[in-house]
Amino acid sequence: MEQLIFLLALLCTAHAAQQDLSKKVFTFPLDKGTATVRLTASVEQPITALTVCMRFYSTETRPQSLFSLAIPSQSNAFLLYKPSVGVYRLHIKGTALDIKGLPDNTDEWNSVCWTWDSSSGLTTLWVNEKRSARKILERRTTLTGLPSIILGQDQDSYGGGFDPNQSFVGDITDVHLWDSVIMPCEIRFYMEGYAFTPGNLLNWKNLQYSTNGSVYVERSDFDKLTCY
Question: What does the alpha-carbon distance between residue 228 and residue 221 come to, in Å, rounded to a whole number?
């Protein structure tokens, strides 16, 4: 079954659009929907460190997935999940860590960056320029195999197994992924909307993606000073 999903993922990649999505958002308007955005990353194996940055806007208070990266051997290889308001749940290869006390604004934009380094296990979450305490999560592990990266849903199996009750509702923009822990100054530049070094695995300005279901590409209102 995993081999079939692997082949389907390759087929989707072959038909994925590659675009500059500057000043654009992915809009997921349906509550408990099945819409997804599949992102294609250029990955050199194995993965031993990651940083993901993204912005989201949502009014939902129920559980929802923000960023889901699965590998053939583990569906929750690198998962950023919100089980409730004010709680961010980090998963590395199925091991979970809850982060509380960081901003989680409904009806407003939230800028999020999450770093993880396999060699030390140190992981840190940043939200709206505030960071969590550094914690240990899955030290000296690696992520191996073609990653399946999904926005809008939590993968309960490699490339699928979606639960509409965990679907994201709202807008997502400025998604970047690096195969390293980026510098705090770069995170602050990202959070404040200044120029920063884009992701080398996923780059919002050169993004290869495919959509499924009711998900739309719309103009962003994050930068209120820009209108064109």
Answer: 11
pLDDT bin (cut points 50, 70, 90) of residue 4 is very low
**Contacts (Cβ under 8 Å, ≥6 apart) of 98:** 83, 87, 88, 89, 90
Please give the structure tokens belonging to residue 197.
Answer: 């070094």
Q: How far apart are CA 223 and CA 24, in angstroms?
A: 11
Read off the tokens for 204. Answer: 């919002």
Distance CA 158, CA 79 (A): 12
> How far, CA to CA in Å, does 99 sit from each of 91, 123, 147?
11, 11, 25
pTM: 0.91
Query: How many CB atoms are closer than 10 A to CB 209?
Result: 21
- Residue 207: which residues within 8 A CB-CB, separation 6 or more? 18, 19, 20, 21, 39, 175
Q: Which two tokens stand for residue 101?
A: 């006390």
DSSP state of 143: B
